[in-house]
Design brief:
CATH superfamily of the largest domain in chain B: ANL, N-terminal domain
Structural class of chain B: alpha/beta
Distance between the termini of chain A: 18 Å
Shape of chain B: globular
Number of helices of chain B: 15
Order of helices and strands of chain A: HHHHH
Strand content of chain B: 25-35%
Low-confidence stretches of chain B: 493-498
CATH topology of chain A: Non-ribosomal Peptide Synthetase Peptidyl Carrier Protein, Chain A
Helix content of chain A: 55-70%
Shape of chain A: globular
Number of helices of chain A: 5
Helix content of chain B: 25-40%
Mean pLDDT of chain A: 87
Largest sheet of chain A: none
CATH architecture of the largest domain in chain B: 3-Layer(aba) Sandwich
Radius of gyration of chain A: 12 Å
CATH class of the largest domain in chain B: Alpha Beta
Oligomer: heterodimer
Structural class of chain A: mainly alpha
Strand content of chain A: under 5%
Strand order of the largest sheet of chain B: 2-1-10-9-11-12-13-14-15
Number of strands of chain B: 26
CATH architecture of chain A: Orthogonal Bundle
Radius of gyration of chain B: 23 Å
Number of strands of chain A: 0
Mean pLDDT of chain B: 91
Chain lengths: 84, 498
């Protein structure tokens, strides 16, 4: 896992949650983001900030938003593809 | 003559403007009226071939990205003489199952990649499976008084209720004369209402009869919404207050061109006056309009053009409907006295499907109980006041706290649970749960994970507080005001929440 990318995404989750989710906790989590406390509103904020910063498309209903490792994998895959 | 059935409306529009775009789903596709009609007839053949009979209930389970297939399936079901039951895809599988069971749906037509809960005899199909080679028009045997759709809502009490509407009800007020169509000032009408909600269904009817093409993103986010307004120069935009607030807070209106918007409509719950004022500033060329109705009362509604001199008013009844406020004994109250709000539909009224008891409570002599408390001012404008109830409004949705409590009680480690609405800056209200565990060690994360399979996303408690006991009064009733204080204290003491 790209740790710098993961750290940045954890910060974005923290921001999107309105500061309620600790970035360190998110970094090490495997549970669904929703279970951790990311609300529907937090989810759509996360989509906007991630899409804007990484120029990827996120689907609010797809598995790549289910938990933090999936999010990192999805963004990592797309940003690497763009560079190649 | 104006058609009085939904398939009749589609036939007329397809004849008038076959090549015109009816629906655009951003990034997914477009549908013309000719395509809409041809595909609906093809799918209706598929339904009839599978044995669908007039009056059968057919569940429709689609996500926002599949609005086009949903529109086709909706009309196909009605062309076959059956009843469309749009089910919100966000519901938990158990809830979908319950609704389909309640209305006795014999089949479910569904969107891409959606898993339909197993239902014994019930068959499932995607629209593509239904659309065969047969494209001759189906001989639709459907009349204005036939049941056209059932929509589920939390109603005014708690258990979800199916609200049935006839074709006459759905087509009431539709304008089919080309030079008189609604929203003629716009080429595109943008919204992001979910399929299976009354607001979403209203947009589907708009797609059929209004001038602009209906434009929708697969899902709402402020950035996507703003980009669509700018890219399509959308003239008409519909939101719910929670979307409006989130949009304004995101500042997107300052980054994209909003000058095309001439009508900004808000539905589902009252726009807070401060938000109306901010919207008026963010959309400089738009008239901001608040619509107030309910799944039960539609097409009865009040319409209010935002008026800074009367900021909280929801307006007067439109289109020949009526409005009244009643006291404890059902007596009509004079202006300024707070009571139950009722509306009378100018069209054939809706009713609860298979629920006589609830019908008697909510529908009386043509009047529909709105489940809100309010009063009329001297000019007959409606104003709402807060009520402490078991049904709260979170964003666009009515949410039953009792239902979420029931889901919590299914967890083996939950001894007691209470769920209540707490104020939220964007959504108006969100749920919070206070739980007494059977033994130590149950966490909020675990309980939320447990609830994720049992309740819809918007029903998930934003906060879960674990306590030793629930505060109860002498008759054993949980005192929600004390719970609210507990939650406030916990917030101050623990900024991480639980």
């Amino acid at each position: 896992m790209n740790r710098a990318l993961a750290a940045r995404l954890a910060e974005l989750v923290h921001t999107a949650s309105g500061g309620t989710l600790d970035a360190g906790l998110v970094m090490n989590s495997r549970e669904p983001l929703t279970a951790l406390g990311l609300t529907s509103l937090g989810r759509l904020r996360l989509v906007d900030v991630v899409e804007e910063e990484f120029d990827v498309v996120l689907d609010l209903d797809e598995a790549h938003l289910d938990d933090f490792p999936s999010l990192v994998r999805h963004v990592s895959r797309h940003t690497t593809e763009d560079e190649s | 003559m104006i058609p009085r059935t939904v398939p009749g409306m589609l036939a007329l529009r397809a004849a008038q403007e076959p090549e015109r775009i009816a629906i655009v789903v951003a990034g997914e596709g477009e549908l013309t009226f000719a395509q809409w009609e041809r595909r609906s007839h093809a799918a209706a053949h598929g339904l009839l071939d599978r044995g669908v009979r007039p009056g059968d209930r057919i569940g429709l389970l689609f996500e926002g990205r599949d609005w086009i297939d949903f529109a086709v399936a909706y009309c196909a079901v009605q062309l076959a003489g059956a009843v469309a039951v749009p089910v919100p895809a966000r519901l938990a599988p158990a809830e979908v199952q319950r609704l389909l069971g309640h209305c006795g749906a014999c089949a479910v037509v569904h969107g891409r990649g959606l898993r339909v809960p197993d239902g014994g005899e019930r068959w499932t199909a995607a629209p593509a499976d239904l659309e065969g080679r047969e494209t001759r028009p189906v001989d639709a045997r459907v009349g204005p008084d036939d049941l056209a759709q059932i929509l589920y809502t939390s109603g005014t009490t708690g258990t979800p209720k199916g609200v049935g509407a006839t074709h006459a009800n759905l087509t009431f007020g539709c304008e089919t004369r080309p030079n008189r169509r609604r929203f003629r000032h716009s080429r595109y009408l943008l919204h992001a209402f979910p399929i299976g909600t009354n607001a979403g269904q209203t947009m589907l009817i708009n797609a059929l009869d209004a001038h602009p093409a209906m434009l929708t993103p697969p899902r709402f986010t402020p950035a996507r919404f703003a980009r669509l307004i700018a890219a399509y120069a959308a003239g008409t935009v519909f939101v719910v207050p929670a979307m409006a607030i989130e949009f304004l807070n995101s500042g997107m209106h300052e980054r994209y061109d909003m000058s095309s918007v001439v009508l900004l409509g808000s539905a589902a719950s009252a726009l807070p006056p401060s938000v109306s004022a901010r919207l008026a500033a963010a959309f400089p060329n738009a008239t901001v309009i608040n619509y107030y109705t309910s799944t039960e009362a539609a097409p009865a509604q009040t319409i209010m053009v935002y008026d800074p001199a009367r900021p909280g008013a929801l307006g007067r009844p439109a289109f020949g409907g009526a409005l009244r406020v009643t006291g404890p004994d059902g007596e009509v109250l004079p202006p300024r006295e707070v009571g139950e709000v009722w509306m009378r539909s100018p069209a054939a009224p809706r009713s609860y499907y298979r629920d006589e008891g609830a019908n008697a409570e909510a529908f009386r002599d043509g009047w529909v109980r709105m489940g809100d408390l309010g009063y009329l001012d001297a000019d007959g404008h409606l104003h709402l006041v807060d009520r402490e109830g078991d049904v709260v409004k979170s964003g666009a949705f009515k949410v039953s706290t009792i239902q979420v409590e029931a889901a919590l009680y299914e967890h083996p480690q939950v001894a007691e649970a209470a769920v209540l609405g707490v104020p939220h800056p964007v959504l108006g209200t969100v749920l919070a749960a206070v739980v007494v565990p059977r033994s130590a060690g149950v966490s909020g994360v675990e309980l939320r994970a447990f609830l994720m399979d049992r309740v819809a996303a918007h029903e998930l408690p934003e906060r879960v507080l674990i306590v030793d006991a629930l505060p109860r009064n002498q008759s054993g009733k949980v005192i929600k005001t004390v719970l609210r204080r507990l939650l406030e204290t916990a917030t101050t003491g623990n900024p991480e929440g639980t």
